[in-house]
Amino acid sequence: MDVRRATAVLAATAVLAGLTAPAAAAAPAAAPSPKPAAALYGEKDPTYDGVWRQSTALLAQHTVGVTPAPAAVDWLAGQQCASGAFAAYRADPAAACDAKTPVDSNATAVAVQALAALGGHRAEVRKATGWLTSVQNEDGGWGYLPGGPSDTNSTAVVVGALVAAGERPEKTLSAEKRSPYDALAGLQVGCDAPAGERGAYAYQPDEKGTLRANADATVAGVLAGHGSGFAVAPEDASGNASGDASGDASGNAASAGGGAEPLDCSGGNATGDRAPEEATSAATAHLIRLLAEDGHLTSAAPGADKPVPDHANTAEAVLALTAGGQRKAAEAPLAWLEKNSAEWAKGNPAGLGMLVLATHATGGDPRSFGGTDLVADLNATGPEPAATDGAAGAEPAGATAREAGDGSGGAELWWLLGGGVLAGLLAGGALMLSGLRKRS
Fold this sequence. Notes:
A two-stranded antiparallel sheet has the order 1-2. It is about 45% helix and about 0% strand. It has one domain: Alpha/alpha barrel (Glycosyltransferase), CATH 1.50.10. The protein is an all-alpha fold. The N and C termini lie close together (about 10 Å).
């Protein structure tokens, strides 16, 4: 998902530059990579993943009872624009957001998941979810950028945000009375596809309108189908959706631990007109088949001549399976991660955060993961936590609730641009470039 999001940010920047720069102006010199703030997790350039990795790290810490440093929480809250939206990263959060600020659904949704879990940021969460619902597409889904065509990954991360904020995704309807699950149904590979692809999700239709199975999108679709964000409680793995939030959010029987059955094509069920629980069950079955091959998922990395292991998507697959009660199926990918993720996760707050969340979801101990203390390693990538031995669910000490940012022009320009321009810019590289932010 992460290269796709980075590509979207670059495309948005290109569009804005084309609209605002004189035709004869020379291209500006490349700006130096911003130096990460002291309160930000990780040392690499945060331009395309600052909010994502901060949110993932904070969510993971909170899930295992670590109280993050107040400055780290405040940094995330301070990235919000007055409209409620978040961009991937704002180097100067004191400056007002404007029409050039590339706000997006993904950064906004993952920030909601983190801030809602941490507590003390009700106003920020309310504004962010309000912005998300204001840019919902007519088909019920979301694109990466407001006004862009819906894609499975963006729709899924927004579903997770809505659930975290206490909203019901199936009741979050567009002007055409379509829910996020309607959008996902339209992105699921159906019975007119080869048997090995049926039930999977596509990221978006290709240039010919064909849906192509995509492992990254399938993982996202399964997690959303079970009505879950990234914080999956261990009891969810046994089919007991904690607080009924997971199961009730989607009206989905599969989220309560139902079985995983391949798409039923016996009755010509090729139109996408299927119940949400059937769609999720079929996608789960497809995901289990993918993982059965070698215990992990792969992706086409830039410059590689063949697919390479995708650690981040494999970790998210563990979350998706456990959210639906498929704990047995999650064992092999988690074991693969335990043996093979050390180098990938080193100094990688988003990666370490996902491993902590996946291990915790299955009832394992993130402090003893293949001989590694994931929690300690995650803590070391950011400011020193306020406490490391609290009960899960504790609110961070000293975290402040505030109205962040002071400019609301970020969303409006994207509506003026329209989905067609952005779709053309993003379509070429979206599927090939899968996983940058997760691997960064």
